[in-house]
Amino acid sequence: MICQPVKTWHLGDQHQSLVLASFDNRLPEAVYWGPALPTGESHKTLSAASLMDVTGGMVDKNAAISLCPEASQTFPGQTGLTVRSRDGNPLAPAFRYESEAASEHGLSLVFADKALDLTLVLDLTLTPETSLLKLQTRLESADIVQVDWLAAPVLPVPAHTGEMIEFSGRWCAEFLTRRLPFAPGARLRDNRSGRTDHAHFPGLIVCTPGTSNTQGEALAFHYGWSGGHRMVAEELADGRRQVQFGHAGGSQAAGRHFVTAPLYATYSAGGFNGAAIRFQRHVRDAVVKDMRTPRPVHYNCWEAVYFDHKLDELKAIATHAAGLGAERFVLDDGWFGLRDDDTSSLGDWVIDGRKYPDGLTPLIDHVKALGLEFGLWFEPEMINEDSDLYRAHPDWVLGPSDQTRGRQQLVLDMAREDVRTHLYGQIATILRDNDIGYIKWDHNRVLPLVDAAQTEGVYQLIDRLRANFPQVEIESCASGGGRIDFGILERTQRVWLSDSNDALERQRIQHDAALYLPAAVTGSHVGPRRCHTSGRTLDIRIRAWTAAQRHMGFEMDPRELTEDETDVLREVTSWWKANRDWMMRADILRLDSSDPAVIAEQQLAENGDRFAVFAAQIRASDQILPHPVRLTGLDPASLYRISLANRDQAPQLSRGSPFLKTEDLEVSGQYLMSHGLTLPWRFPETIWVLEGQRL
Ligand code: GLA
User: Fewest C-beta atoms under 10 Å: which of 160, 174, 286, 613?
Assistant: First the structure.
């Protein structure tokens, strides 16, 4: 029996259903979010069935975890909107249904508080190809108001999930995951850095204690915004739980129109991988635009020359890189102004005539003659005090003049149109006058204050450049992975995941980043033999294969390679080129490795017919025999042929005769997923690469 008037909506596909109900014309709440419901299920009945009891010590009615929980409803937790009038008085809107409209893959629901003249619009879609919810909240006000907090549509998470995985990190250790239990109270992340930042990837995965990569339930979220976000994962005193994401608190100026970035969310019954592949596919096919294929093998000269640019040396390096298989050459920091170190010239995007008396053309011509594309580094949002730009426009700086510098630099106020126009002019001139196919766009410090207008300004500048130079790909870098999110990926085609080229660290970072990022956008470079950021010396084999798991590139001085290193790198690069067409569209499936010393993943082709498995021995295992590596996502009834791509790398200390050391194996998907592959013993800091083909 339904006693209250209720409106319902359903967003669903074969993987998940989200049922929303609005009682008494109030804001809708998710009365169901989980596995796909059967057709014919009555959403009205589900809405009625969701009503919870009331007992002693409670108010007489449970306030909903609506898509924007309201203070006016006596909501017992963090509300979805904190808004003040122009003169600072707190407002407590009570929104009521106004109208609705269908959008391409979803709906737009409009609610209003007539007395306060506020309108709340909820834009909700479910992309059918990738099964990803995209949720956005807009607030329109007749008067100027101050919004301290506006959450993207808020979703409840069920009581049986109980755990969450959140992200932290640092320079050279991006995407650190931490698994925490839900507990009474709010887990709040408020990223005040003004950028996405290494320490605050805007993601959250809610799961059960038993969820692993390959099984169990997961509800995964990502807030697609580059300007600092706030996350609230709260267990209310009554036991219910909610997840909120929005811009960092107080980062929006007073005004009449406010909109959150999109919150992406998905329910998976297939472990973390079930969610990860939806994010990976969505980034690749829906978020990123104009991605060049096949993905060109990348060379970046930063760790080879730093600021010491000499034309002849750079030409020689390019020639060597081409010989290894590179198809793109990126000239990093040091080509502009008088930039001999990191104390000067940011802001002066003019070619340094001392280093390049004839401009960049001689280098570009050389690179192009080798058959490579030419790319160039910029850090447009930044300014050094020792620069012509600063001398001319000291007032263009964001924040107070006595602020602490970051890498000796200040930040330009990107909300200013004159700043954007100036930057556009300088960058466009370089792009027009030179044959450039690629920009590495850097951002090497946190902001002096958190300001959404800064991020909107950067988006505008990039959008203008993209519109006028659509053939130029852009890589998002911020001291490595300090600006990785779906907001920046809407306007770029690659991310520099980390300044760490240490293959062991990379294995961990790229494995965890695969919870959201596909291989095609994730840059991974073979660095110098002795890693510049960790001091560790690693063999070329693990360095090369680690880069081959993502968008491959090199970043060492190739003239330093030994003959053996050159051979290995050439071989792995040509393996990558032979496989990139399917691998750059493959799902990255993280394997549940029973040995914590092994990081293993499987890249499964779109049609499921072939795959590659990378099993990296990060350190020595506790036990002497290698644990079998269990695969996932295969057809149990099909037969697969498995071969060890690098079987010649078994060390002499491997004295036995595991089959794969000498032969290919033909076994069922069932065997591969249940028993797993028995691999030869190997040294730590090495990797096995397996290739599989359905017969
Ligand atoms: C940042 C980037 C590096 C490099 C330098 C140049 O640290 O992450 O890859 O481009 O800037 O200054």
Answer: 160
